[in-house]
Amino acid sequence: MIKVSNLSFSYQQGSPILSAINLDFDTRTTAIIGQNGAGKTTFVKLLKGLLKPYGGEIFIQNLRVNDSTAAELAKTIGLVFQNPNEQIFKRNVLDEAMFGPLNIKMSTHTARQKAIEALEMVGLNDKLEVNPHDLSLSEKKLLCIASVVAMDTDIIIFDEPTIAQDHAGKERIRNIINTLKEKNKLVMTIIHDMDFVAENFERTIVLNEGKVILDGDTRSVFASKEILKNAHVEAPGITQLGEKLGYKETFLSVEEFIKMYKHVTEKK
């Protein structure tokens, strides 16, 4: 769905932000992780067409991003910003969710239908006439997710989706990711919540100083302790617990840990 070839970018000459990035993306749910300044946000802005590469190429499906505008790409790739206050500007929740679909030339009827479906998905269908600025930060984030989901793009990128979310909010976002995956959409995220990555994303890419230093299935990535340490990335809490207790397995969820613990204790 996305092909990145020898991508490089810098805001000023001599200070590269990204260097020689080569990646192919299919429909596996994919997390891009790394410490602040690793180049994650710059990378997704390049995918979205908000920035142009200094070198190399990006193809999204058959569209060359280098030659395309963000408006042209909007039908194919959607981005949910980290800060919802930078994305919200309409006077009620329904209009906010309809804006994206209308902007890519959906009919008013279809845009309304897609918006209401997306708002039901995030649990805001009972607040259609509420001013978005009267919502909590958690609800604003969910509204931004709904606004992008309603556009029905093949690719959706979440920037720090779990910010301000309690357990129920995270479960809702988990269900959204699973629903989108079932529709064969590519769901990507840039995120610092490693527990959420471990439980919800099949593939993980680690960026460090503008370069890809790890790329693989999430379990194998979190098993690469030394590389993660060098990139200043902490493994999920349950992964660290298993290691401290002497297990050789790399756990990605509490359920996995409990299952192994019960198996070991029953054998004793």
TrEMBL record:
Keywords: ATP-binding, Cell membrane, Membrane, Nucleotide-binding, Translocase, Transport
Residues annotated as domain ABC transporter: 2-234
Membrane topology, record value: Peripheral membrane protein
Superkingdom as given in the UniProt entry: Bacteria
Pfam family, any one: ABC_tran
Record's keyword annotation contains Methyltransferase: no
Keyword Flavoprotein among UniProt keywords: no
Cited SMART domains: AAA
Record-linked SUPFAM superfamilies: P-loop containing nucleoside triphosphate hydrolases
GO MF annotations, alphabetized: ATP binding; ATP hydrolysis activity; ATPase-coupled transmembrane transporter activity; cobalt ion transmembrane transporter activity
PROSITE patterns associated with the record: ABC_TRANSPORTER_2
Subcellular location: Cell membrane
Cellular component, GO annotation: ATP-binding cassette (ABC) transporter complex
CDD domains, alphabetized: ABC_cobalt_CbiO_domain1
PANTHER family linked: ABC TRANSPORTER ATP-BINDING PROTEIN MA_1418-RELATED, HEAVY METAL TRANSPORTER
Family according to the record: Belongs to the ABC transporter superfamily.
Listed name of the protein: Cobalt ABC transporter ATP-binding protein
